[in-house]
Amino acid sequence: MLAAKEKARASRFVKETDRQTFIVAKALLRSVLAEYTGVSSGEISFEHGKRQKPRLKNPCNLSIHFNVSHSGQSILFGVSDEEIGIDVEYYKNATVGETDIRNLFVGDEVSFINNQSSPVKTFHSLWTRKEALLKGTSEGISDKIRFVPCLTGTHDIKPGVIASSVNWTVISFDADEFCTASIAYTGLNKQLTFYQLDDYK
Amino acid sequence: MKLASTQIQSEISGSLNDQNSSPAHNSGPSGMLPEDEVVFMKSFNDTTTNYSSQKTITHLFEEQALRTPENIALIRHERTFTYAQLNEQANRLARYLVDQGVEAGSNVGLLASRDFGMIIGMYAILKTGSAYIPIDPDYPLDRQKYILNQSSASHIISDADYPGLDTMAEVKVIKFNKVDLEKFDSGNLNIPVESHQLAYTIYTSGSTGVPKGVMIEHHSAVNLIEWVNNTFNIGSNDRVLFITSMCFDLSVYDIFGLLSAGGAVVIASQEEVVDINSLKEFLTKYRITFWDSVPTTMNYLVKELKATKEPFVQDSLRLVFLSGDWIPIQLPMEIKNYFPNAKVISLGGATEGTVWSNFFEVERLDPSWKSIPYGRPIANNFFYVLDEHLKPVSVGVMGDLFIGGVGVARGYANDAIKTHHSFLPDPFNPHAGGRMYRTGDLGRMMPDGNLEFLGRKDSQIKIRGFRVELGEIENVLNKSDLVNQAVVIARTETDGNKNLIAFIVPNAEKLDRKSILAYLKSKLPEYMIPALIEELQQFPLTANGKIDKQALLKLELTDHIGAGYKAPETELQLKLAGIWKEILGVERVGINDNFFELGGHSLIAVRMITRLEAEIGIQFPLSILFKYPTISSLLSSNEITPANVKAEWKSLVPIKDTGHKIPLYIIHGSGLNVLNFSTIATFVDPEQPVFGLQAKGLSGMEEPLDDMIEIARSYIVEILEHNPTGPYALAGYSFGGYVAVEMRNQLAAMGKKVNMLAIFDTNAVQSDHYRKWHQNLWNKLKNQGPKFKWILESLYSRPLPTIKYQSFLLSRAVKTAVTKITGIKTSESDTFYTRIDKITEKHLHAFQKYNMIPFEDKVHLFRAKERIYFVNDFHYLGWRHYALKGVKVYEVPGDHKTMLLHPNAKEFARALQTALDNCG
């Protein structure tokens, strides 16, 4: 089902678990997109869009956007009719130092993390919010990520922080035990549906 | 003893003149060839023919319009324009342009898409007596603006409202689609235009990435047009399919050539140009007789005809002109399968030589050919195969190709330096044009009187020390049945090594890698086998229809060099690898291992940056690992250097930055860094600022330069940044003397004032000897390092203390510098010395290529009293030949090295200050 490029990349992972996750993620992504596009999974092809964000090579101009993230044992796919970003972090064995917090978060975020009963989880959860949003806007990680707001509430984003002029909603959830995730999508009132692999036919 | 060899080179530069000049070198341009070869070359270049040297391309067209007013000139789909209509419309527009202030002799930008308006616009501009500068509306706006500014265009005319047109503030914009031209008179304007005025300036992409404007005069184009039209009997029945961009000079013949002969130009739109099926259809529908394109386009067409398998024969096509790139060797014969009446003509040349300078009619395929022969020069053009000293080489010997004759361009627009480098006086045919153009191509003369093209000089690369011509590998690949088309590229890896990558469009559905590798191994030596083979469905093309090699290099490859593990070596690499191992939890990290393939992901990447900052003191952008995912790429990327560290490694180093006098800039010698000038700086006048310029590449963060012009240019850029107006005082020590001369020339060309040019004990050697002798020496050095070192050491029995002192100075400088950058204390056995060797080699190369010419200035020569080697011209060290305004000699105590040090530095500084004050 995988393209030659994907197979080649799979072969280069050093750790077997990374390789397997990569292969499963790519194969599942193809199956998921096959459902939405009606194209068979092996025929689906990808290209790079804005700032190298992977997107569907889409001759029929279907309005299908997706984003993928994996960490630990979890693989998440987000699919939408508009731009979407998703991020998951597995934090079971993670440690978080004060420098990490100060490097990646600003203002109230720092004290918020430090005041939680589980700062490690909060650190990762808030981080996924930032990263999901920047993946949604096709920007990815940059120095600006510090300034992407992530505390619960409504924020007016200062000009220049994200490359988008529309409203975004970011929602966090637990994807699994020790696994926190966020999804970022455009608009404020979109209907979200969660599927687990078992449900997904 | 590494240091000894780098220092001694400065003395070598002073010791060369003991080789007396041999008369052979001075006996005129062809002095070295035997008599029969001289005769052979003469007859090869015996092309002088009468042509309408007083006419312009406008004359040719206006005369034709008078002869055949009702002939069809332009065709686009169902629309046509006769010669009379085209001429009248161009006349009206020209009158409008004159009304708008376009004056004869100016440059006018033309922004137009592929339609009648483009050609009307060209003739209208020419009729005003101006030159046109084609600008593709699809070019990025920055490039459009660059071309407009660089060419000092007075106006830009456009056939539509293109985005960004209104932001072209510096020029006057004329949108002629908005104008009712009917009210203007349609008769010829008859504005007098000399045939030596410019007809057009076409911007070509230089290999350096900055486009250069090639300025072509009318008579050059007239010569080309008359040659084609007479040689191939172009006339009223001919129709060309115009598929080339107007920004590419094949368009010059398509338009002005056909329209001087009564034929028609069939215009394909931008979309149609890239659609093989449209081209196929047009060929038949319009009964095209003349095809003119880069080989790639024709190759695609033929492959398409082959693939569709439906019978296709077009018998009206009588001429196929292929130029601009390698011609796949089977292509000419394949063309004849579908176009039985077509003659295939291979042409070569350069935009700088007015479209084409040589041609060869391919009538049959000789199995012994490695490539289609380049042929012979066209009328009033000459070809020379020269060695590095601009002397002709013998038949069969490879050399640099030069074009001479009336087609040679006037030069590059507003770029005296590049013009000076590429356009030289033609000593072989001083009267027809009188200048020759250095093409950058390699070739040789075949015994049958045809030239053989051997590739671009810059496509000849070295792989593990072997010289490899990429075209040769491509030809082997293209001969395989498995391959539809192949391109081979050398990719410079982050460690500086090169790898060959073959991009292949297979004949079958899928490329059979094993077979193709086996095939390559049966035909080529091991070092020519590409390390990577990448399968493509089709090649990316440039706007000109050539294969876009830059785009190929940017492709994400599926093939991968397997044996990529390379252990970390330097301290910094080891440190980074250690941190990676720890954070990623892997056992082994090589410098070419990809962070993400080792299990890294975004959050880890970001936290890694935190660690790096804490442990080695460099603050990277958070996104750095996404861009540079391996240790080696990370360390060799320029972008990782924070601005403050970067500043430390500028070439310009303030040695003493106080004082109000005209600052002195001293250019390093072979020791490459400028610390040896610090003693002098302590003894100059308190009001005298002194700056040093040290070699690029010393920091290891950037590639050392190997071209004297580029070295000088890079220093000037830094000097101008810090002192934009001048005046300047320049001094060069040892090797730096030549750099200083080149800088002086470049500054003078910019109109900047150089008050003093001082030379610190550099021997101005006759470059011929220097090069030959030096090159041999260098080769020897490379081949037999230890032995050579011994020779050097015994040859120049230098006082040991001096060497030790210098070595102390240098190693101290290195350590401080490296510590500043990395925060890491280095051991003495740092790779820094490898770096110095590399820079020295590059500079030697720069010197070997450099051709110092006499200049209108005075040289202040600071000559060491003690000379431990022999020089030819003891008094002036050879400078009298170059400094046309004279040489003033200051004798200073000490020898070449010690004159700058205690106790001699004091007197040196005093003499220097006196000289500076007298020049102020």
Overall structural class of chain B, as computed from helix and strand content, comes to alpha/beta
Lateral arrangement of strands in the main beta sheet of chain A: 5-7-6
Order of helices and strands of chain A: HHEEEEEHHHEE
**What separation lies between the terminal Cα atoms of chain A?**
18 Å
Low-pLDDT residue spans of chain B: 1-30, 639-649, 766-833
Polypeptide structure, described:
The complex is a heterodimer of chains A (201) and B (920). With 201 residues, chain A is of the alpha+beta class. Chain A is built from 5 helices and 7 strands; from the N terminus they run H-H-E-E-E-E-E-H-H-H-E-E. Chain A has helices at residues 4-10, 16-37, 98-104, 108-114, 119-136; strands spanning 46-48, 54-56, 65-71, 74-80, 84-90, 168-176, 179-186. With 920 residues, chain B is an alpha/beta fold. In chain B, the strands form 8 sheets. Chain B has a 7-stranded mixed beta sheet with strand order 27-29-28-30-31-32-33, with helices on both faces. Chain B has a 5-stranded mixed beta sheet with strand order 11-12-13-14-15, with helices on one face. In chain B, strands 16, 17, 19, 20 and 21 form a 5-stranded antiparallel beta sheet that branches. In chain B, helix 10 crosses helix 11 (295-308) and helix 23 (708-722) crosses helix 24. Chain B is globular and about 90 Å long. The interface between A and B is medium-sized, with 25 and 24 residues.
List keywords for this structure.
heterodimer, A: 201 residues, alpha+beta, 3-stranded antiparallel beta sheet, two-stranded antiparallel sheet, 5 helices, B: 920 residues, alpha/beta, 7-stranded mixed beta sheet, 33 strands, disordered N terminus
What's the arrangement of secondary structure elements?
The complex is a heterodimer of chains A (201) and B (920).
Chain A: H1 4-10, H2 16-37, E1 46-48, E2 54-56, E3 65-71, E4 74-80, E5 84-90, H3 98-104, H4 108-114, H5 119-136, E6 168-176, E7 179-186
Antiparallel strand pairs in A: 1-2, 3-4, 5-7, 6-7
Chain B: H1 2-12, H2 35-44, H3 57-67, E1 72-76, E2 79-82, H4 83-99, E3 107-111, H5 116-127, E4 131-135, H6 141-150, E5 155-158, E6 172-175, E7 198-205, E8 211-217, H7 218-231, E9 239-242, H8 250-258, E10 264-267, H9 270-273, H10 276-285, E11 290-293, H11 295-308, E12 319-323, H12 331-338, E13 343-348, E14 358-362, E15 376-377, E16 381-386, E17 399-405, E18 411-412, H13 416-422, E19 423-425, E20 435-445, E21 451-456, E22 460-463, E23 466-469, H14 470-478, E24 483-492, E25 498-506, H15 513-523, E26 532-535, H16 549-554, H17 571-584, H18 602-616, H19 624-627, H20 631-636, H21 643-648, E27 652-656, E28 664-667, H22 678-683, E29 690-693, H23 708-722, E30 728-733, H24 736-749, E31 754-760, H25 767-783, H26 785-795, H27 800-822, H28 832-849, E32 859-864, E33 887-892, H29 905-919
Parallel strand pairs in B: 1-10, 3-4, 3-5, 5-6, 9-10, 11-12, 12-13, 25-26, 28-29, 28-30, 30-31, 31-32, 32-33
Antiparallel strand pairs in B: 1-2, 7-8, 8-18, 13-14, 14-15, 16-17, 17-20, 19-20, 20-21, 22-23, 24-25, 27-29
